[in-house]
Amino acid sequence: MNLWLSLSEADFEDRMAKAVTPVLLDFSAPWCQPCKRLEPELEKLAAQLAGTVAFYTINVDEAPNLAAQLQVMGVPTVILLVNRQEAARTVGYQPLPRLLTAFSPHLGS
Asked: I need a surface site. Which of 17, 49, 74, 102 has the fewest CB within 10 A?
């Protein structure tokens, strides 16, 4: 995912504190087939929202405490944070139109 930066538990708070735009967090795992299926849809979403949202991917196997903190119960889970508060969430595979429906209303665009 080229617009999606990897985010670890260690740098989560720092990145969120410095965020000046809404943030999309993609919680996934390398072994997760629905996550792999979702990747192209997330790439399209990132292309449409580039410049208005920061994009981070989080491997739940490497960041279990962060996943628990944000109450991620399954992967893939995509969470939109606006002003560090959860504005929207999707769980499981979602095609681009559903992702846009879930997240766009919270982006003011």
From this structure: 17
Per-residue pLDDT band at 57 (split at 50, 70, 90):
very high
The active-site residue out of 16, 19, 29, 32 is 32
Tell me, yes or no, if 35 is annotated catalytic: yes
Domain with residue 39: its CATH number is 3.40.30.10
As for how many domains the chain has, the answer is 1
User: What is the Cβ-side half-sphere exposure of residue 69, based on CA atoms within 13 angstroms?
Assistant: 10
97 tagged catalytic: no
**pTM of structure:** 0.96
> 85: domain range?
5-106
